[in-house]
Structure formats: C-alpha cells, structure tokens
Design a protein that fits this description.
This protein has 447 residues and is of the alpha+beta class. Strands 2, 3, 4, 5, 6, 11, 12, 15 and 16 form a 9-stranded antiparallel beta sheet that branches. A hairpin with a 6-residue loop joins β15 and β16. The protein is globular, with a radius of gyration of 24 Å. The structure holds zinc ion. Zinc ion (ZN) binds next to α12.
Length: 447
C-alpha cells in the first residue's frame, strides 16, 4: 500500500525526461530504445562438421556500450572441418575490417552489405592459400537494434518468424538441384552439372557440379572443386517492427526435415534456449539423425514500456522526433536499397542482393574510397601503390572505354580471384585432390 500511495503522490514522481534526452537516446542508441536480444542454440552431431558462432556483445566503437550489436552464424562443413573452423575464426574480423572507421550507426548499417561481400571473398582467398580441400556453408547474421542483416552461401537457412505468425526466408538456397540460375552460372563459368553416375549408368542423388561432386553452388573453401563455386553471399537486410521477431538459423539437417513453418511452429512461445532444443528434437523425430543438425535461435524482444517517458508535446517537437525515428535513409546507390514493404508485412526490407558478379556487389561507391584513398584493395584491404592494383572494370574482358578508376579497386591477387570466379582464368594451380576421399564423401552425402 505504501508503494501505491507514493506513486500517486505527485511530489514523489520521478522527474520527467526532457525531449532533448529522448532524442539523444535515439541518436546515440540508448539501450532503452533498443530491443533485447536473447539467444539459444542446440546441436546434434553425426559427422561433427557443423560449427556455430554466438557473439551477443560486439561493439562498433570500442569502449562504447551503446554501439553494441550481435552476431550469430552457422558453418556447415563438408569434406573435412578446416574450412568451417577457419571461417568461424576469421570471417567476422574480415567483414568488420572492410567497414571504414568512424561511421555513424546508419552509415555503418548501409556499408555492411558490401563489407560482408568483401569479408566472405577475403576469407575464401585466405583459406585457399592454405591449400586444404574442405569447404563450408556460412550463414552470418548481424543484429543491430531492429535491423537484421543476413549473409549466406550454401544452404544453412535463416528464417524470420514475426508477431502474427508470418514466417519468411531471409536466405536463398545455393543448391544446384533447386536453383536454376546458379546451375546456369556454374555451367557458364566452366563447371559441369549432373548427377552421380553409378556403374551401369544409373544416376543417383541430387545435382552436383563436376569436378568435385559438390551439391552446393556457393561456399567458402572447396579449393579442389573449382572457382565457379563462389564465396559471394546473398545478402538481405530488414528492419523489424517494434513488435520484434524470432530468427531461426539452422544447418540443412533441420531444413531437410522441417519446412520453415514447421520449425517456427515447433517452438513458438518458448524461450530461445529451449526453443532451439525443440527444433532439433522435432527434426530428429521427423527424419532421424541423418546429418549434423545445428540450430541457433535469436529473439529480438521489444524493451518494456518506460514509465518515465510521457507522451510527447508540443506537436512541432513531436514531428521532429518522429522524423528522427522514422526518417528516410539516404539511398546507397551502389546497392539496391529498396525501402519497400516486403511480403512479411510489417517488416521493412532495406536491402537484398544475391548476384555472383563481384563488381555488381562492390559498387564504385564502396565507402572505403572516401576514407582510405583510392588504392586500398576493396577485398583484402591491403594498400597498393598506384601501379600495383587494377580497378575491377579495367582490362581486356571489359569495355575498352572503361575509365581506369571505375569500379572497386582490387589488388592483383583479388583481381585474379575475381576473374577465376567468372571462369576467365584459374586463380591458382589446382590442389591435387584425393579422388577416393571425394568419392567417399559423395557416398556419405547421398540420401
Ligand atoms: Zn586484394
């Protein structure tokens, strides 16, 4: 009773929060304006080639807790674990080092899709230098406030379950069997696509690319398969409504057993840690343990209403505040920032691009140039003297009218990688592959 009387006594009310403080909270990303991120994970290993990453407390600005963001990822390795382990250790650093320092939050989020492309390609180049033959899918999710950015190669899906039970897919499956566009690209770049031929001419299993026999069309690693298996991720960036939502990130062990709707439904209303267990359990119940099965669940939960914040007035201030909260983003001409409402209704779609053509992904307005001069390689971030590197659009493969400084600037090695991915040349001498190991791997993965 004492508490109630105290709340009713005006002299006991806590002080009102001035408008300037409220605006400041939004501008500086005060935690009270940000959703809470809760996560859970669960895995069941068969081959031990799935890895995952959960980093809920990353900082854009070192030492500044209001610049926090979270990162979650799944790496489903094949033909060994070294690519999955290497990518888990280095990918995030490579992405972050491709974002120029000193950007504000909105600029940072706009730079992220291109930095993800640079970081994925750099990690692939660095891994291939090791001369090992394994590969991995990657699905990397960056959650900053209400904005979710997903980059993926391979078939480890990320789905979004929003309030009201609308489930949407934030990734694209890079599986040759299901993706005609990728089949065309691989064939055009020098790969062959077909099923495994058993003795007697019987074709079995899903479509694969040859040499190598991989069912995926994009991955990190796979040095022995061919450069047409590219590490260039599909990237999608969405902004959730203030109702929040749940992300389910999982390896194909889940998605071969459950549809997106089934996975979302299996754990709705259950806290994240237990939800991840339930999704894995449901997949195992449906299909048994056929593959590594890993699930990471991320809940983006609205903050509790702040009793200290009163309705805003007068009206002209309110308009100002509203425009700060919901103001249009400046368009990034290099990417396809759409700002349109997507099929998920209340979720705002900010960006989506899945092209495997590098210069379409590292547009000429790549923000690196503004801060670091024209001669830093857009992929590996190594500074070049003017004569060392080449602009991605220069050379005999492109229009002779291209100007020398158009397109992202690439060092010689990254340029070589780009040409190799497009089937124009090999980036390196092929690592001699152990065919019996590959054949074993193929037999293991036939379902
Ligand atoms: Zn480079």
């Amino acid at each position: 009773m004492t508490d109630v009387r105290q709340r009713r006594d005006p002299s006991m009310r806590p002080p009102l929060v001035p408008l300037a403080t409220l605006i400041g909270r939004e501008l500086h990303g005060d935690k009270s304006e940000k959703p809470t991120v809760k996560c859970g994970h669960h895995a069941f290993a068969k081959r031990g080639e799935d890895y995952f990453l959960v980093k809920p407390d990353c900082l854009r600005i070192p030492g500044n807790p209001s610049s926090s963001f979270s990162v979650f990822a799944i790496f489903d390795g094949h033909n060994g674990v070294s690519a999955a382990v290497f990518t888990k250790e280095h990918l995030l650093d490579n992405v972050m080092s491709a974002i120029p320092p000193g950007l504000g939050r909105e600029e940072w989020l706009q730079a992220l899709p291109q930095a993800l492309v640079a970081g994925f390609v750099r990690t692939d180049i660095d891994f291939q230098r090791k001369g090992e033959t394994s590969g991995t899918t990657v699905t990397l999710v960056v959650v900053d406030g209400w904005t979710v950015t997903v980059a993926s190669v391979g078939d480890s899906r990320c789905i979004l379950d929003t309030q009201g039970g609308v489930v949407s897919l934030l990734t694209v499956d890079h599986r040759l069997e299901e993706n005609a566009e990728e089949r065309e690209r691989v064939t055009a770049s020098g790969g062959e696509v077909g099923r495994l031929n058993l003795s007697g001419g019987q074709e079995v299993g899903p479509l694969r690319c040859w040499p190598g026999g991989l069912c995926l069309s994009r991955s990190i690693g796979d040095t022995d398969v061919g450069e047409f298996i590219v590490p260039i991720p599909h990237v999608k960036q969405v902004k959730l409504s203030r109702a929040g939502g749940r992300l389910i990130i999982a390896s194909d062990g889940i998605w071969d057993a459950l549809s997106s709707e089934m996975a979302a439904k299996a754990c709705r209303g259950i806290p994240a840690e237990l939800a991840a267990k339930l999704v894995v359990k449901e997949a195992l119940r449906k299909s048994g343990l056929k593959d590594d099965t890993t699930c990471v669940i991320v809940d983006i939960v609205p903050p509790p209403p702040d009793p200290l914040i009163l309705p805003l007035s007068p009206k002209k201030h309110q308009n100002k505040f509203t425009s700060l909260l919901f103001g249009r983003k400046s368009q990034n001409t290099a990417g396809k920032h759409t700002n349109k409402l997507s099929s998920v209704g209340v979720v705002e779609e900010l960006f989506e691009e899945g092209s495997a053509i590098l210069e379409e992904r590292l547009g000429k307005n790549f923000p690196l140039k503004a801060n670091s001069g024209p001669f830093r390689c857009a992929i590996c971030q190594v500074d070049q003297t003017p004569n060392e590197g080449l602009s991605a659009t220069v050379g005999s493969y492109f229009s002779p009218t291209s100007k020398p400084q158009e397109g992202p600037y690439l060092c010689v090695e990254c340029r070589r990688k780009k040409d190799a991915m497009e089937g124009k040349r090999r980036s390196r001498t092929t690592v001699s592959s152990n065919d019996s190991v590959i054949f074993q791997e193929i037999l293991l993965s036939i379902r």
